């Protein structure tokens, strides 16, 4: 039995007994609120959350049994002990039937009262844990090992080991499919909360109204379709970790609510005035450049600083030397084999969809292969073309770019120009600008189409701009 302080509500009309009980429990370190009537108690329960309540059975106005019924009807979650001067078996049975967890007769020793309150609190914690576990069974996924020994992944793993044991928020950035959720789970596994709930939400996958009710829960009747009270993921994750994927997509109206939970753990369900407190570690992930979102006014600066306290950036797969081979070994199960050409093609590909794309390609190849040997013919066209050095760029993509706007040099100051490098850079610029135009200037979408990180697109555009603005000298004239 735990001896942590109990958040206790005591409802007793006899002044002396109420004061004596309240003082005793307070001296024992519990957080006690004592009131003399059922009406006062109900008003309090609307605003505050209690773990345990002790109701005197016989009170003028509203009896303890009636109060218990009202509490049940309002779906207020707390453990109730009924206290009575005239205990009978019948009244004890009906109290239990109404949902009381315990029944005590007066006079009772104060030590007994405390003991029963502790048992009730532990029962409440068990019930809560049970709800959390049920919620998790449907959400939890098998653990995925973090495969990769490249230098960049080794340094990610070192950061995971360092940030894991703190209970501070972590922000994981990286392109889609780089393994942000896998890393979030690894952080949780390295933390003191490893045996506590790990609950996930993807802000991009849900409409705005649903994101709010998923995260914060709602009160019955608070909007059309809210047919019952529903706890939010913050409550379900209480004591554990909440992984907020695609946090860059969190609607602006919800950002202050999230900030409040991060600041002092307080939140309210939609349509409720009751303030709740939760203790949840937040791990957030995004494939957007959140700093630019802040600069563009799409993401609150104060929230950004809160979640960005500890951050880590996942490298794209094309920058993880040797990891494609390790991922092949991991995901290509026996009896499948891959021949040298196919392996080489996979190693050389630029993987815009990162690890997720590699897994899909391997799964597809296992289906298409004759027997159990995967060859280059079982790989998708874009990978085969890449491997043959035939990455084809649609010639029409050059039409919208005027020849005089092409960059003249990659370095800008070099007097020795390599023709082939110049042409490659020209092609790259034309392609990037074309994709950007096709996406009506939306850099996030263009970056996604190009298979590069948004930050990289910004850097490329800056470079293109710099080279275009430069005074053209003979030494940098393009052929
Ligand atoms: N290092 C890794 N080792 C093993 N499997 C991995 C690794 N990284 C990613 N995966 C696998 O790749 C797939 C995509 O990973 P995950 O969902 O974590 O990526 P993500 O970056 O969160 O993607 P998104 O931004 O689209 O949500 C999953 O099937 C995951 O198990």
Automatic annotation (TrEMBL):
Keyword Acetylation belongs to the record = no
Point out residues bearing the modification 4-aspartylphosphate: 56
> SUPFAM superfamilies given for it?
CheY-like, Homeodomain-like, P-loop containing nucleoside triphosphate hydrolases
Domain Sigma-54 factor interaction stretches: 146-367
Which segments constitute the Response regulatory domain?
Answer: 7-121
Say if the entry is tagged with keyword Phosphoprotein.
yes
One GO biological process term is: phosphorelay signal transduction system
Q: Which InterPro entries match?
A: AAA+_ATPase, AAA_lid_NorR, CheY-like_superfamily, Homeodomain-like_sf, HTH_Fis, P-loop_NTPase, Sig_transdc_resp-reg_receiver, Sigma_54_int
Its keywords, alphabetically, are:
ATP-binding, DNA-binding, Nucleotide-binding, Phosphoprotein, Transcription, Transcription regulation
| GO molecular function terms attached to this record | ATP binding; sequence-specific DNA binding
Record-given protein name: Transcriptional regulatory protein ZraR
Instruction: List the source organism.
Output: Neorhodopirellula pilleata
The organism's taxonomy opens as: Bacteria, Pseudomonadati, Planctomycetota, Planctomycetia, Pirellulales
Q: Which gene is transcribed and translated to give this protein?
A: zraR_4
């Amino acid at each position: 039995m735990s001896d942590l302080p109990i958040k206790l509500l005591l409802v007793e009309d006899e002044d002396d007994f109420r004061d004596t009980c309240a003082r005793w429990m307070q001296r024992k370190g519990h957080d006690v609120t004592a009131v003399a009537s059922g009406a006062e108690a109900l008003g309090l329960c609307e605003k505050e959350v209690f773990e345990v309540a002790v109701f005197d059975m016989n009170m003028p106005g509203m009896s303890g049994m009636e109060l218990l019924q009202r509490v049940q009807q309002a779906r207020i979650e707390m453990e109730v002990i009924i206290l009575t001067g005239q205990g009978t078996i019948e009244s004890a049975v009906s109290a239990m039937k109404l949902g009381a967890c315990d029944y005590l007769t007066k006079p009772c020793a104060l030590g007994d009262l405390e003991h029963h309150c502790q048992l009730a609190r532990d029962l409440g914690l068990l019930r809560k844990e049970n709800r959390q576990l049920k919620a998790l069974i449907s959400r939890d996924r098998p653990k995925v090992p973090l495969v990769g020994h490249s230098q960049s992944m080794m340094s990610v793993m070192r950061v995971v080991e360092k940030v894991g044991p703190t209970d501070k928020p972590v922000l994981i950035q990286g392109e889609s499919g780089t393994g942000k959720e896998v890393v979030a789970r690894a952080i949780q596994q390295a933390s003191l909360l490893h045996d506590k709930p790990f609950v996930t939400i993807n802000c991009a996958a849900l409409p705005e109204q649903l994101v709010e009710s998923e995260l914060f829960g709602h009160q019955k009747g608070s909007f059309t379709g809210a047919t019952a009270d529903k706890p939010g993921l913050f409550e379900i994750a209480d004591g554990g970790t909440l992984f907020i994927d695609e946090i860059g997509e969190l609607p602006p109206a919800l950002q202050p609510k999230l900030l409040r939970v991060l600041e002092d753990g307080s939140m309210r369900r939609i349509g409720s005035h009751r303030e709740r407190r939760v203790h949840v570690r937040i791990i957030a992930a995004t494939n957007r450049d959140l700093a630019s979102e802040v600069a563009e006014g799409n993401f609150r600066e104060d929230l950004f600083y809160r979640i960005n306290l500890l951050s880590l950036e996942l490298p794209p797969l094309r920058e993880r030397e040797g990891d494609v081979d390790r991922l092949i070994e991991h995901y290509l199960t026996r009896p499948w084999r891959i021949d040298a050409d196919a392996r080489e093609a996979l190693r050389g590909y630029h993987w815009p969809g990162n690890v997720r794309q590699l897994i899909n390609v391997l799964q597809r190849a296992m289906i298409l292969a004759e027997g159990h040997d995967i060859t280059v013919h079982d790989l998708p066209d874009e990978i085969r073309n890449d491997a043959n050095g035939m990455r084809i760029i649609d010639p029409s993509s050059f039409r919208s770019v005027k020849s005089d706007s092409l960059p003249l040099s990659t370095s800008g100051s070099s007097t020795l120009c390599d023709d082939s490098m110049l042409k490659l850079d020209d092609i790259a610029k034309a392609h990037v600008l074309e994709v950007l135009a096709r996406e009506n200037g939306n850099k996030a979408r263009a970056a996604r189409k190009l298979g590069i990180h948004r930050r990289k697109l910004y850097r490329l555009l800056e470079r293109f701009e710099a080279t275009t603005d430069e005074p053209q000298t003979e030494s940098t004239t393009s052929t």
